[in-house]
Write a structure and sequence with these properties.
single chain; elongated; mainly alpha; 2 strands; 10 helices; two-stranded parallel sheet
Length: 192
Protein backbone atom coordinates (compact mmCIF):
# COMPACT_ATOMS: atom_id res chain seq x y z
CA UNK A 1 0.00 0.00 0.00
CA UNK A 2 1.35 3.39 -0.96
CA UNK A 3 1.53 6.16 1.59
CA UNK A 4 0.83 9.82 0.78
CA UNK A 5 4.46 10.62 -0.03
CA UNK A 6 4.63 7.68 -2.45
CA UNK A 7 1.38 8.81 -4.09
CA UNK A 8 2.79 12.34 -4.40
CA UNK A 9 6.01 11.00 -5.96
CA UNK A 10 3.97 8.94 -8.43
CA UNK A 11 1.86 11.98 -9.37
CA UNK A 12 4.95 14.13 -9.88
CA UNK A 13 6.72 11.37 -11.84
CA UNK A 14 3.64 11.15 -14.08
CA UNK A 15 4.13 14.81 -14.97
CA UNK A 16 1.64 16.47 -12.63
CA UNK A 17 2.83 19.90 -11.50
CA UNK A 18 3.21 20.21 -7.72
CA UNK A 19 0.04 22.33 -7.37
CA UNK A 20 -2.03 19.67 -9.12
CA UNK A 21 -0.44 16.85 -7.11
CA UNK A 22 -1.30 18.86 -4.00
CA UNK A 23 -4.93 19.27 -5.11
CA UNK A 24 -5.30 15.54 -5.78
CA UNK A 25 -3.84 14.60 -2.39
CA UNK A 26 -5.68 17.30 -0.41
CA UNK A 27 -9.08 15.66 -0.89
CA UNK A 28 -10.20 14.69 2.61
CA UNK A 29 -6.77 15.49 4.10
CA UNK A 30 -5.28 18.23 6.24
CA UNK A 31 -4.14 21.06 3.97
CA UNK A 32 -0.87 21.74 5.83
CA UNK A 33 0.03 18.06 6.10
CA UNK A 34 -0.62 17.66 2.38
CA UNK A 35 1.78 20.54 1.64
CA UNK A 36 4.43 18.75 3.70
CA UNK A 37 3.76 15.50 1.82
CA UNK A 38 4.31 17.21 -1.55
CA UNK A 39 7.40 18.87 -0.10
CA UNK A 40 8.75 15.44 0.91
CA UNK A 41 8.05 14.07 -2.56
CA UNK A 42 9.92 17.00 -4.13
CA UNK A 43 12.89 16.52 -1.80
CA UNK A 44 12.60 19.96 -0.18
CA UNK A 45 14.23 19.88 3.28
CA UNK A 46 11.68 19.94 6.08
CA UNK A 47 13.14 23.04 7.78
CA UNK A 48 12.91 24.95 4.50
CA UNK A 49 9.34 23.78 3.93
CA UNK A 50 8.34 24.75 7.48
CA UNK A 51 9.81 28.24 6.95
CA UNK A 52 7.93 28.65 3.67
CA UNK A 53 4.67 27.44 5.20
CA UNK A 54 4.87 29.86 8.14
CA UNK A 55 3.81 32.66 5.84
CA UNK A 56 0.85 30.63 4.60
CA UNK A 57 -0.60 29.50 7.94
CA UNK A 58 -3.22 32.21 8.03
CA UNK A 59 -4.58 30.85 4.74
CA UNK A 60 -5.67 27.46 6.06
CA UNK A 61 -8.82 28.83 7.71
CA UNK A 62 -9.93 30.56 4.51
CA UNK A 63 -10.21 27.28 2.61
CA UNK A 64 -12.72 24.49 3.04
CA UNK A 65 -12.73 20.86 1.94
CA UNK A 66 -12.78 20.78 -1.84
CA UNK A 67 -10.56 23.89 -2.10
CA UNK A 68 -7.38 21.91 -2.72
CA UNK A 69 -6.97 23.15 -6.28
CA UNK A 70 -6.98 26.91 -5.59
CA UNK A 71 -4.94 26.42 -2.43
CA UNK A 72 -2.38 24.33 -4.32
CA UNK A 73 -2.09 27.06 -6.94
CA UNK A 74 -1.66 29.70 -4.24
CA UNK A 75 0.99 27.67 -2.42
CA UNK A 76 2.82 27.21 -5.71
CA UNK A 77 2.54 30.92 -6.48
CA UNK A 78 4.18 31.88 -3.17
CA UNK A 79 7.04 29.43 -3.71
CA UNK A 80 6.14 26.67 -1.26
CA UNK A 81 6.88 23.98 -3.86
CA UNK A 82 10.00 25.60 -5.37
CA UNK A 83 12.89 23.15 -5.58
CA UNK A 84 16.07 25.14 -5.13
CA UNK A 85 19.14 24.12 -7.09
CA UNK A 86 22.86 24.67 -6.72
CA UNK A 87 24.20 26.44 -9.77
CA UNK A 88 27.60 25.69 -11.22
CA UNK A 89 30.24 28.42 -11.34
CA UNK A 90 29.00 29.85 -14.67
CA UNK A 91 25.40 29.80 -13.49
CA UNK A 92 26.42 31.64 -10.31
CA UNK A 93 28.17 34.32 -12.38
CA UNK A 94 24.99 34.77 -14.45
CA UNK A 95 22.90 34.95 -11.26
CA UNK A 96 25.17 37.64 -9.77
CA UNK A 97 25.02 39.69 -12.97
CA UNK A 98 21.22 39.43 -13.00
CA UNK A 99 21.08 40.58 -9.38
CA UNK A 100 23.34 43.55 -10.16
CA UNK A 101 21.19 44.48 -13.16
CA UNK A 102 18.13 44.39 -10.89
CA UNK A 103 19.93 46.75 -8.51
CA UNK A 104 20.63 49.15 -11.38
CA UNK A 105 16.92 49.42 -12.20
CA UNK A 106 16.45 51.96 -9.42
CA UNK A 107 13.51 50.05 -7.97
CA UNK A 108 11.19 47.29 -9.01
CA UNK A 109 7.61 46.36 -8.16
CA UNK A 110 7.51 43.86 -5.29
CA UNK A 111 5.58 41.21 -7.23
CA UNK A 112 8.05 41.31 -10.11
CA UNK A 113 10.99 41.27 -7.70
CA UNK A 114 9.59 38.21 -5.88
CA UNK A 115 8.98 36.38 -9.13
CA UNK A 116 12.39 37.19 -10.57
CA UNK A 117 14.19 36.28 -7.34
CA UNK A 118 12.56 32.81 -7.37
CA UNK A 119 13.75 32.02 -10.87
CA UNK A 120 17.53 31.85 -10.30
CA UNK A 121 17.02 29.93 -7.05
CA UNK A 122 15.21 27.23 -9.03
CA UNK A 123 17.66 27.23 -11.94
CA UNK A 124 15.45 29.23 -14.29
CA UNK A 125 18.10 31.74 -15.35
CA UNK A 126 16.77 32.16 -18.91
CA UNK A 127 13.34 33.15 -17.57
CA UNK A 128 14.85 35.68 -15.15
CA UNK A 129 17.00 37.13 -17.92
CA UNK A 130 14.16 37.57 -20.40
CA UNK A 131 11.98 39.28 -17.78
CA UNK A 132 14.78 41.62 -16.69
CA UNK A 133 15.53 42.68 -20.27
CA UNK A 134 11.97 43.97 -20.59
CA UNK A 135 11.81 45.98 -17.36
CA UNK A 136 12.03 49.77 -17.40
CA UNK A 137 14.83 51.61 -15.61
CA UNK A 138 13.45 54.12 -13.13
CA UNK A 139 14.69 57.70 -13.10
CA UNK A 140 16.88 56.99 -10.07
CA UNK A 141 18.34 53.91 -11.80
CA UNK A 142 21.54 53.55 -13.77
CA UNK A 143 20.64 52.63 -17.38
CA UNK A 144 24.26 52.19 -18.52
CA UNK A 145 25.07 49.80 -15.67
CA UNK A 146 21.77 47.97 -16.19
CA UNK A 147 22.53 47.37 -19.89
CA UNK A 148 26.17 46.43 -19.25
CA UNK A 149 25.21 43.86 -16.61
CA UNK A 150 22.49 42.38 -18.84
CA UNK A 151 24.73 42.22 -21.91
CA UNK A 152 27.40 40.38 -19.89
CA UNK A 153 24.77 38.09 -18.34
CA UNK A 154 23.30 37.32 -21.76
CA UNK A 155 26.68 36.33 -23.18
CA UNK A 156 27.43 34.02 -20.26
CA UNK A 157 23.89 32.64 -20.24
CA UNK A 158 24.04 31.72 -23.92
CA UNK A 159 27.16 29.64 -23.23
CA UNK A 160 25.68 28.16 -20.01
CA UNK A 161 22.51 26.74 -21.60
CA UNK A 162 22.43 23.02 -22.36
CA UNK A 163 23.12 22.48 -26.08
CA UNK A 164 19.77 20.77 -26.74
CA UNK A 165 17.57 23.43 -25.13
CA UNK A 166 16.60 25.25 -28.33
CA UNK A 167 13.53 26.89 -26.78
CA UNK A 168 15.51 28.58 -24.00
CA UNK A 169 18.32 29.43 -26.43
CA UNK A 170 15.82 31.15 -28.73
CA UNK A 171 14.28 33.17 -25.89
CA UNK A 172 17.70 34.22 -24.61
CA UNK A 173 18.92 35.11 -28.14
CA UNK A 174 15.84 37.28 -28.73
CA UNK A 175 16.24 39.01 -25.35
CA UNK A 176 19.97 39.57 -26.00
CA UNK A 177 19.13 41.16 -29.36
CA UNK A 178 16.56 43.46 -27.72
CA UNK A 179 19.10 44.43 -25.09
CA UNK A 180 21.82 45.08 -27.68
CA UNK A 181 19.46 47.23 -29.80
CA UNK A 182 18.63 49.33 -26.76
CA UNK A 183 22.32 49.63 -25.92
CA UNK A 184 23.23 50.63 -29.48
CA UNK A 185 20.51 53.28 -29.60
CA UNK A 186 21.42 54.54 -26.12
CA UNK A 187 17.76 54.61 -25.29
CA UNK A 188 15.88 52.75 -22.64
CA UNK A 189 12.34 53.37 -21.50
CA UNK A 190 12.31 54.77 -18.00
CA UNK A 191 9.69 54.69 -15.29
CA UNK A 192 9.14 57.00 -12.39
Amino acid sequence: MNGPVDRAREALAAGLPPAEAYAALAVGADFRDTALVVRDALGIPRADAERRLRGAEELWGDFTPGDGEPLGELLDLIGVFDVHVTLDESGERVRRLLERSMGALGGIASGAAFSISRQPATGRLPEAYTVLVGLPVRERGDPARYRAELIAAGELLAAWLPPGDQEAAGRVREARERCARRDASGSRPTAR
